[in-house]
Backbone:
Protein backbone atom coordinates (compact mmCIF):
# COMPACT_ATOMS: atom_id res chain seq x y z
CA UNK A 1 0.00 0.00 0.00
CA UNK A 2 2.74 2.62 0.79
CA UNK A 3 4.20 2.06 -2.69
CA UNK A 4 0.99 3.50 -4.14
CA UNK A 5 -0.21 5.91 -1.47
CA UNK A 6 3.04 7.77 -0.80
CA UNK A 7 3.67 8.91 -4.41
CA UNK A 8 -0.04 9.67 -4.91
CA UNK A 9 -0.11 11.87 -1.80
CA UNK A 10 3.07 13.66 -2.86
CA UNK A 11 1.67 14.13 -6.37
CA UNK A 12 -1.66 15.50 -5.12
CA UNK A 13 -0.13 17.83 -2.51
CA UNK A 14 2.44 19.24 -4.96
CA UNK A 15 -0.09 19.67 -7.76
CA UNK A 16 -2.47 21.46 -5.38
CA UNK A 17 0.11 23.74 -3.74
CA UNK A 18 1.98 24.79 -6.92
CA UNK A 19 -0.60 27.39 -8.12
CA UNK A 20 -0.51 29.00 -4.67
CA UNK A 21 3.29 29.18 -4.82
CA UNK A 22 3.01 30.78 -8.27
CA UNK A 23 0.55 33.40 -6.99
CA UNK A 24 2.85 34.17 -4.05
CA UNK A 25 5.82 34.60 -6.41
CA UNK A 26 3.86 36.96 -8.66
CA UNK A 27 2.59 38.98 -5.72
CA UNK A 28 6.13 39.63 -4.48
CA UNK A 29 7.66 40.08 -7.91
CA UNK A 30 9.76 36.91 -7.92
CA UNK A 31 9.43 36.24 -11.64
CA UNK A 32 11.75 35.30 -14.48
CA UNK A 33 11.62 37.97 -17.18
CA UNK A 34 12.69 37.15 -20.76
CA UNK A 35 15.37 39.84 -20.80
CA UNK A 36 18.30 37.77 -22.13
CA UNK A 37 18.83 36.08 -25.53
CA UNK A 38 19.38 32.66 -23.88
CA UNK A 39 15.88 32.67 -22.35
CA UNK A 40 13.25 30.80 -24.34
CA UNK A 41 10.03 32.07 -22.73
CA UNK A 42 8.33 35.20 -24.02
CA UNK A 43 6.51 36.43 -20.92
CA UNK A 44 7.34 36.78 -17.20
CA UNK A 45 6.97 33.43 -15.39
CA UNK A 46 6.83 33.03 -11.58
CA UNK A 47 9.74 31.33 -9.83
CA UNK A 48 9.99 29.71 -6.36
CA UNK A 49 8.88 26.27 -7.64
CA UNK A 50 11.38 24.74 -5.23
CA UNK A 51 8.91 25.38 -2.41
CA UNK A 52 6.31 23.21 -4.12
CA UNK A 53 8.86 20.38 -4.44
CA UNK A 54 9.90 20.81 -0.81
CA UNK A 55 6.30 20.67 0.42
CA UNK A 56 5.70 17.61 -1.76
CA UNK A 57 8.81 15.93 -0.34
CA UNK A 58 7.70 16.73 3.22
CA UNK A 59 4.24 15.30 2.44
CA UNK A 60 5.81 12.13 1.06
CA UNK A 61 8.01 11.66 4.13
CA UNK A 62 5.08 12.33 6.47
CA UNK A 63 2.84 9.86 4.65
CA UNK A 64 5.57 7.21 4.58
CA UNK A 65 6.19 7.66 8.30
CA UNK A 66 2.46 7.46 9.14
CA UNK A 67 2.20 4.26 7.08
CA UNK A 68 5.20 2.75 8.90
CA UNK A 69 7.33 2.58 5.74
CA UNK A 70 10.07 4.77 7.20
CA UNK A 71 12.29 4.89 9.17
CA UNK A 72 13.62 1.56 7.94
CA UNK A 73 16.82 -0.44 7.67
CA UNK A 74 18.26 1.95 5.07
CA UNK A 75 16.36 5.21 5.71
CA UNK A 76 17.13 6.01 9.33
CA UNK A 77 15.41 8.72 11.35
CA UNK A 78 18.50 10.93 11.34
CA UNK A 79 18.63 10.59 7.53
CA UNK A 80 15.09 11.96 7.27
CA UNK A 81 15.98 14.94 9.44
CA UNK A 82 19.13 15.55 7.42
CA UNK A 83 17.30 15.36 4.09
CA UNK A 84 14.59 17.81 5.17
CA UNK A 85 17.08 20.28 6.63
CA UNK A 86 19.34 20.09 3.57
CA UNK A 87 16.34 20.57 1.26
CA UNK A 88 15.28 23.57 3.32
CA UNK A 89 18.73 25.15 2.93
CA UNK A 90 18.46 24.77 -0.85
CA UNK A 91 14.98 26.28 -1.22
CA UNK A 92 15.69 29.15 1.18
CA UNK A 93 18.96 29.99 -0.58
CA UNK A 94 17.33 29.50 -3.95
CA UNK A 95 14.49 31.85 -3.02
CA UNK A 96 16.98 34.54 -2.03
CA UNK A 97 18.75 34.08 -5.36
CA UNK A 98 15.46 34.21 -7.30
CA UNK A 99 14.56 37.46 -5.56
CA UNK A 100 17.91 39.23 -5.34
CA UNK A 101 20.02 37.54 -8.06
CA UNK A 102 22.87 36.63 -5.70
CA UNK A 103 26.46 36.51 -7.01
CA UNK A 104 27.86 32.98 -7.53
CA UNK A 105 30.02 33.08 -4.38
CA UNK A 106 26.87 33.59 -2.31
CA UNK A 107 24.75 31.15 -4.32
CA UNK A 108 27.13 28.26 -3.68
CA UNK A 109 26.93 28.66 0.11
CA UNK A 110 23.53 26.95 0.20
CA UNK A 111 24.44 23.79 -1.76
CA UNK A 112 27.57 23.51 0.39
CA UNK A 113 25.48 23.73 3.58
CA UNK A 114 23.07 21.14 2.17
CA UNK A 115 25.86 18.70 1.28
CA UNK A 116 27.52 19.10 4.69
CA UNK A 117 24.15 18.52 6.39
CA UNK A 118 23.72 15.22 4.54
CA UNK A 119 27.22 14.10 5.50
CA UNK A 120 26.64 15.11 9.14
CA UNK A 121 23.44 13.05 9.20
CA UNK A 122 25.45 9.94 8.38
CA UNK A 123 24.66 9.56 4.68
CA UNK A 124 27.75 8.85 2.63
CA UNK A 125 29.47 6.71 0.05
CA UNK A 126 31.84 4.26 1.71
CA UNK A 127 32.24 1.72 -1.09
CA UNK A 128 32.32 2.26 -4.86
CA UNK A 129 31.95 -0.68 -7.21
CA UNK A 130 34.72 -0.94 -9.79
CA UNK A 131 32.94 -1.60 -13.12
CA UNK A 132 35.84 -3.79 -14.19
CA UNK A 133 35.73 -5.91 -11.05
CA UNK A 134 36.07 -5.52 -7.29
CA UNK A 135 35.24 -2.56 -5.08
CA UNK A 136 36.99 0.58 -3.88
CA UNK A 137 36.82 1.14 -0.12
CA UNK A 138 36.62 4.80 0.91
CA UNK A 139 36.17 4.42 4.66
CA UNK A 140 39.68 3.46 5.76
CA UNK A 141 41.00 6.90 6.75
CA UNK A 142 38.77 8.13 9.57
CA UNK A 143 38.94 9.75 12.99
CA UNK A 144 36.44 10.61 15.74
CA UNK A 145 35.44 14.27 15.67
CA UNK A 146 33.44 14.20 18.91
CA UNK A 147 31.42 11.90 21.14
CA UNK A 148 27.89 12.89 22.16
CA UNK A 149 25.88 10.84 24.67
CA UNK A 150 28.23 7.93 24.15
CA UNK A 151 27.86 8.00 20.36
CA UNK A 152 31.07 8.73 18.40
CA UNK A 153 30.76 11.07 15.42
CA UNK A 154 33.48 10.27 12.93
CA UNK A 155 34.96 12.01 9.90
CA UNK A 156 35.76 9.58 7.11
CA UNK A 157 37.96 11.80 5.01
CA UNK A 158 37.93 10.16 1.57
CA UNK A 159 34.31 8.99 1.78
CA UNK A 160 33.10 12.40 2.97
CA UNK A 161 35.04 14.25 0.27
CA UNK A 162 33.66 11.90 -2.38
CA UNK A 163 30.10 12.36 -1.07
CA UNK A 164 30.54 16.14 -0.97
CA UNK A 165 31.85 16.28 -4.55
CA UNK A 166 29.15 13.91 -5.79
CA UNK A 167 26.30 15.91 -4.25
CA UNK A 168 27.59 19.24 -5.56
CA UNK A 169 28.15 17.69 -8.99
CA UNK A 170 24.60 16.40 -9.45
CA UNK A 171 23.15 19.55 -7.84
CA UNK A 172 24.81 21.79 -10.41
CA UNK A 173 24.04 19.39 -13.26
CA UNK A 174 20.29 19.94 -12.87
CA UNK A 175 20.85 23.66 -12.23
CA UNK A 176 22.58 23.95 -15.62
CA UNK A 177 19.96 21.70 -17.22
CA UNK A 178 17.06 23.93 -16.20
CA UNK A 179 16.58 25.77 -19.48
CA UNK A 180 13.42 24.31 -21.01
CA UNK A 181 9.94 23.96 -19.56
CA UNK A 182 9.52 20.69 -17.65
CA UNK A 183 12.98 19.38 -18.48
CA UNK A 184 14.43 19.10 -14.96
CA UNK A 185 11.22 18.12 -13.17
CA UNK A 186 10.51 15.41 -15.74
CA UNK A 187 14.01 13.94 -15.85
CA UNK A 188 14.22 14.00 -12.05
CA UNK A 189 10.91 12.14 -11.84
CA UNK A 190 12.24 9.56 -14.30
CA UNK A 191 15.46 9.21 -12.30
CA UNK A 192 13.54 8.66 -9.08
CA UNK A 193 11.39 5.97 -10.70
CA UNK A 194 14.52 4.20 -11.97
CA UNK A 195 16.14 4.31 -8.51
CA UNK A 196 12.88 3.01 -6.99
CA UNK A 197 12.92 0.07 -9.42
CA UNK A 198 16.60 -0.66 -8.75
CA UNK A 199 15.98 -0.53 -4.99
CA UNK A 200 13.38 -3.28 -5.35
CA UNK A 201 15.69 -5.61 -7.26
CA UNK A 202 16.45 -8.84 -5.42
CA UNK A 203 20.16 -8.11 -5.02
CA UNK A 204 19.42 -4.66 -3.54
CA UNK A 205 16.13 -5.21 -1.66
CA UNK A 206 15.60 -1.77 -0.10
CA UNK A 207 11.83 -1.11 0.00
CA UNK A 208 12.22 1.91 2.30
CA UNK A 209 14.59 3.56 -0.19
CA UNK A 210 12.17 2.74 -3.00
CA UNK A 211 9.31 4.47 -1.18
CA UNK A 212 11.40 7.61 -0.63
CA UNK A 213 12.30 7.66 -4.34
CA UNK A 214 8.67 7.12 -5.36
CA UNK A 215 7.59 9.92 -3.03
CA UNK A 216 9.92 12.45 -4.60
CA UNK A 217 8.96 11.19 -8.07
CA UNK A 218 5.33 11.94 -7.16
CA UNK A 219 6.30 15.47 -6.10
CA UNK A 220 8.21 16.07 -9.35
CA UNK A 221 5.34 14.79 -11.51
CA UNK A 222 2.81 16.85 -9.56
CA UNK A 223 4.89 19.94 -10.24
CA UNK A 224 5.29 18.92 -13.90
CA UNK A 225 1.54 19.45 -14.41
CA UNK A 226 2.23 23.19 -14.10
CA UNK A 227 5.80 23.21 -15.40
CA UNK A 228 5.45 21.45 -18.76
CA UNK A 229 5.50 23.66 -21.85
CA UNK A 230 4.13 26.28 -21.77
CA UNK A 231 5.19 26.52 -18.13
CA UNK A 232 3.05 28.46 -15.68
CA UNK A 233 5.79 28.34 -13.02
CA UNK A 234 9.53 27.65 -13.04
CA UNK A 235 11.54 25.64 -10.53
CA UNK A 236 13.78 28.59 -9.78
CA UNK A 237 17.19 28.20 -8.20
CA UNK A 238 15.85 26.29 -5.19
CA UNK A 239 13.93 23.77 -7.27
CA UNK A 240 16.58 23.17 -9.93
CA UNK A 241 19.22 22.48 -7.27
CA UNK A 242 16.91 20.42 -5.03
CA UNK A 243 16.04 18.12 -7.96
CA UNK A 244 19.64 17.04 -8.62
CA UNK A 245 20.50 17.04 -4.95
CA UNK A 246 17.74 14.55 -4.14
CA UNK A 247 18.83 12.29 -7.01
CA UNK A 248 22.32 12.38 -5.55
CA UNK A 249 21.09 11.52 -2.05
CA UNK A 250 18.88 8.71 -3.37
CA UNK A 251 21.81 7.27 -5.31
CA UNK A 252 23.79 7.06 -2.07
CA UNK A 253 21.12 5.63 0.21
CA UNK A 254 20.09 3.06 -2.39
CA UNK A 255 23.42 1.31 -1.94
CA UNK A 256 25.74 3.62 -3.84
CA UNK A 257 23.90 3.44 -7.16
CA UNK A 258 26.14 6.13 -8.63
CA UNK A 259 26.24 4.49 -12.08
CA UNK A 260 22.43 4.36 -12.21
CA UNK A 261 22.15 8.10 -11.61
CA UNK A 262 25.00 8.78 -14.02
CA UNK A 263 23.11 6.98 -16.79
CA UNK A 264 19.94 8.98 -16.09
CA UNK A 265 21.83 12.29 -15.94
CA UNK A 266 24.68 11.25 -18.22
CA UNK A 267 23.88 13.54 -21.13
CA UNK A 268 23.25 16.66 -18.99
CA UNK A 269 26.31 15.88 -16.86
CA UNK A 270 28.60 15.55 -19.89
CA UNK A 271 27.05 18.74 -21.28
CA UNK A 272 27.72 20.63 -18.03
CA UNK A 273 31.33 19.44 -17.99
CA UNK A 274 31.77 20.40 -21.64
CA UNK A 275 30.33 23.88 -21.08
CA UNK A 276 32.49 24.52 -18.00
CA UNK A 277 35.67 23.37 -19.78
CA UNK A 278 34.86 25.49 -22.84
CA UNK A 279 34.17 28.61 -20.76
CA UNK A 280 37.28 28.19 -18.61
CA UNK A 281 39.94 27.02 -21.06
CA UNK A 282 38.76 28.10 -24.50
CA UNK A 283 36.82 31.32 -23.90
CA UNK A 284 38.75 32.07 -20.68
CA UNK A 285 35.79 33.43 -18.74
CA UNK A 286 33.85 32.52 -15.64
CA UNK A 287 31.94 29.23 -15.88
CA UNK A 288 29.06 30.87 -14.01
CA UNK A 289 28.27 33.36 -16.78
CA UNK A 290 25.21 31.94 -18.54
CA UNK A 291 24.95 31.68 -22.31
CA UNK A 292 23.02 29.83 -25.00
CA UNK A 293 25.36 26.90 -25.51
CA UNK A 294 23.81 24.11 -23.44
CA UNK A 295 22.58 20.88 -24.95
CA UNK A 296 18.91 21.88 -24.86
CA UNK A 297 19.73 25.09 -26.76
CA UNK A 298 21.62 23.08 -29.37
CA UNK A 299 18.62 20.79 -29.86
CA UNK A 300 16.54 23.87 -30.65
CA UNK A 301 19.23 25.10 -33.03
CA UNK A 302 19.12 21.91 -35.11
CA UNK A 303 15.35 22.05 -35.53
CA UNK A 304 13.69 20.49 -32.50
CA UNK A 305 10.62 22.23 -31.15
CA UNK A 306 10.50 23.07 -27.45
CA UNK A 307 8.41 20.00 -26.62
CA UNK A 308 10.35 17.71 -28.95
CA UNK A 309 13.63 18.66 -27.28
CA UNK A 310 12.21 17.95 -23.82
CA UNK A 311 10.63 14.64 -24.87
CA UNK A 312 13.88 13.60 -26.57
CA UNK A 313 15.77 14.20 -23.32
CA UNK A 314 13.08 12.31 -21.39
CA UNK A 315 13.42 9.33 -23.73
CA UNK A 316 17.20 9.19 -23.36
CA UNK A 317 17.01 9.47 -19.56
CA UNK A 318 14.36 6.73 -19.37
CA UNK A 319 16.11 4.40 -21.81
CA UNK A 320 19.58 4.64 -20.32
CA UNK A 321 18.23 4.71 -16.76
CA UNK A 322 16.21 1.55 -17.37
CA UNK A 323 19.27 -0.08 -18.91
CA UNK A 324 20.81 -0.25 -15.44
CA UNK A 325 18.29 -2.99 -14.62
CA UNK A 326 20.05 -5.29 -17.07
CA UNK A 327 23.54 -3.89 -17.67
CA UNK A 328 26.44 -4.88 -15.46
CA UNK A 329 29.93 -3.53 -14.79
CA UNK A 330 31.80 -2.54 -17.91
CA UNK A 331 28.56 -2.50 -19.90
CA UNK A 332 27.49 0.60 -17.97
CA UNK A 333 30.78 2.29 -18.85
CA UNK A 334 30.10 1.48 -22.51
CA UNK A 335 26.60 2.99 -22.17
CA UNK A 336 28.11 6.18 -20.75
CA UNK A 337 30.49 6.26 -23.70
CA UNK A 338 27.52 5.98 -26.06
CA UNK A 339 25.84 8.91 -24.27
CA UNK A 340 28.99 10.97 -24.76
CA UNK A 341 28.97 10.15 -28.47
CA UNK A 342 25.34 11.38 -28.68
CA UNK A 343 26.37 14.68 -27.09
CA UNK A 344 29.27 15.08 -29.53
CA UNK A 345 26.96 14.37 -32.48
CA UNK A 346 24.44 17.00 -31.30
CA UNK A 347 27.17 19.60 -30.76
CA UNK A 348 28.61 18.89 -34.22
CA UNK A 349 25.17 19.16 -35.84
CA UNK A 350 24.40 22.46 -34.11
CA UNK A 351 27.75 23.93 -35.17
CA UNK A 352 27.08 22.85 -38.76
CA UNK A 353 23.67 24.56 -38.69
CA UNK A 354 25.20 27.78 -37.36
CA UNK A 355 27.89 27.76 -40.09
CA UNK A 356 25.19 27.40 -42.76
CA UNK A 357 23.30 30.37 -41.36
CA UNK A 358 26.46 32.47 -41.50
Residues:
Amino acid sequence: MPFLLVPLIAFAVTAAITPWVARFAVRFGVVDRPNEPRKIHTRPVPLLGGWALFIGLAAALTAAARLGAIPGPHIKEKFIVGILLAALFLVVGGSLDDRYNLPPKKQIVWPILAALTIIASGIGVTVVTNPFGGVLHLERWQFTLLTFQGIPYKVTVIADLFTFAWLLGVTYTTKFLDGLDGLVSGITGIGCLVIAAVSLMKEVSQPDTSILALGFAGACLGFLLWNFHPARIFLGEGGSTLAGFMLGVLAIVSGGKIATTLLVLGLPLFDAAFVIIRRLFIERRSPTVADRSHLHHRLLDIGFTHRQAVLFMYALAAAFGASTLVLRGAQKVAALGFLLSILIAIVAASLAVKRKKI
User: Anything to note?
Assistant: The chain is about 65% helix and 5% strand.
